[in-house]
């Protein structure tokens, strides 16, 4: 059966049933924006039964929730129908903005040495329904708080561009004015650099934000941190980014973990600036979290981070320092590991 979250199949079904446009608009708003259940969104038991018989409706369930005691983060451990656990994080910013960090895979195909998710291995790609289902689960929680999902980042478990088909389908629903209606400027897809799919994403959604996990200024260091670099080396990534930016208007964010004595010297900052020359981007510097992965690395000192930032700014780059929410509940960058994952 098709997924209820496949908007093309849903519209085709509405057409066959001669479902009035006025009621379609009402359903889209109530179900995909206000996150009411099917019975409330349709208010027609017979039609609800017809929908349930025609569509597959993913049955994700929250099996645990952890709320940070130091900031506005909540980590949801979510279980799929076949017993796999994934993690979704709600981020409540003090200004009132609410972001949602969602997963695209159960486990991860990559083996980045700084990331806890990599220790799980790879189970499978998430379906379209399981990706959108995370948004709906979080939306139900936020509705009770009189909050709305304003921003979505594909920075949870997995490499989104290894699951490109389902990620692109989910983006269609998120960005459609008829469905979730999010602005592309409020949606970010993260990748470690799957170059052919960066091009595909940029062509499909040129206004979308892209976050590239780079974390090194040269191939030698990146090989240590990210084995994928042997397949997609930095020269190939730069070529792709330069080509993709010709038609893309969405922001490009370069993610750079600062690790003591590995990638945090002033010389490496200058090397990074030279590598990024000609690429329109914002550089996000992220202090390495000691609990991220399996290495014996430590975060750079405040002095080293400031010096690194100074070099980049002297080269006319816009630089931000990211403060990751949810550290006390293992919900910060690189910490998602779904410790109760099904084997």
In summary, what is this structure?
The chain has 343 residues and is an alpha/beta fold. Helix content is 34%, strand content 19%.
Count of helices? 11
Number of strands: 12
Radius of gyration, whole Å: 21 Å
Structural class: alpha/beta
Q: How is the main sheet built?
A: 10 strands, mixed
Describe the structure.
The protein has 343 residues and is of the alpha/beta class. It has helices at 7-16, 21-32, 38-42, 45-54, 128-144, 164-175, 195-204, 219-225, 234-244, 266-275, 302-314; strands at 61-67, 72-79, 85-92, 98-101, 105-107, 122-125, 151-154, 187-191, 209-213, 252-258, 282-287, 318-321. The longest helix is centred in the middle third of the chain and has 17 residues, at 128-144. The strands form 2 sheets. It has a 10-stranded mixed beta sheet, covered by helices on one side. The chain contains 11 helices and 12 strands. The two termini are 27 Å apart. Helices cover 34% and strands 19% of the residues.
SSE layout and pairings?
Elements: H1 7-16, H2 21-32, H3 38-42, H4 45-54, E1 61-67, E2 72-79, E3 85-92, E4 98-101, E5 105-107, E6 122-125, H5 128-144, E7 151-154, H6 164-175, E8 187-191, H7 195-204, E9 209-213, H8 219-225, H9 234-244, E10 252-258, H10 266-275, E11 282-287, H11 302-314, E12 318-321
Parallel strand pairs: 4-7, 7-8, 8-9, 9-10, 10-11, 11-12
Antiparallel strand pairs: 1-2, 2-3, 3-4, 5-6
Helix pairs in contact: 5-6, 7-9, 10-11
